[in-house]
């Protein structure tokens, strides 16, 4: 079931264009329009779920993760990558449609590392690949 007011549902149906890197019956993956890293891809189910706690069926969760894994290979993220699932207000989730961020293409400090502040300020300036 899709939500006609949701921007990610509209990307899923094709009503809103996106730089898609993968699509099948259940999910779609596309490049984030404000990349934080050289590789920044979002994987979403086509059906609408507010966030990961919104009774996403286990098969859908599993499928999205399998797609994540395949995309990291295709994008050549051999040095590693980070997955991020912002959920709710405390995590500043800005689009209320469950999505998995794939971030990679360079070293990312951990949030408690000394260089975290500099990274958070400058990450968006890295050139996409
Ligand atoms: P979050 O804060 O986890 O909800 O992340 C939402 C992400 O969606 C942000 O990184 C946005 O840059 C990205 N985003 C929002 N609208 C679009 C869009 N139309 N196409 C691509 N990325 C988008």
What does this entry look like structurally?
The chain is α+β, with helices and mostly antiparallel strands and 129 residues long. Helices cover 24% and strands 19% of the residues. It is built from three helices and five strands, in the order H-E-E-E-H-E-E-H. A hairpin with a 3-residue loop joins strand 1 (20-23) and strand 2 (27-31). The longest helix is centred in the middle third of the chain and has 17 residues, at 58-74. The radius of gyration is 15 Å and the shape is globular. It starts with 6 loop residues before the first helix and ends in a 7-residue tail after the last helix. 22% of the residues are buried. The structure holds adenosine monophosphate (AMP). Residues 7, 18, 30, 32-34, 42, 86, 92-95 line the site of adenosine monophosphate.
**Radius of gyration using CA atoms only:** 15 Å
User: Percent of residues in beta strands?
Assistant: 15-25%
Bound molecules: adenosine monophosphate
Summarize the amount of helix as a percent range: 10-25%
- Name the structural class: alpha+beta
Distance between the termini: 34 Å
Largest sheet: 5 strands, antiparallel
Top keywords for this entry?
129 residues; alpha+beta; five-stranded antiparallel β-sheet; 5 strands; binds adenosine monophosphate
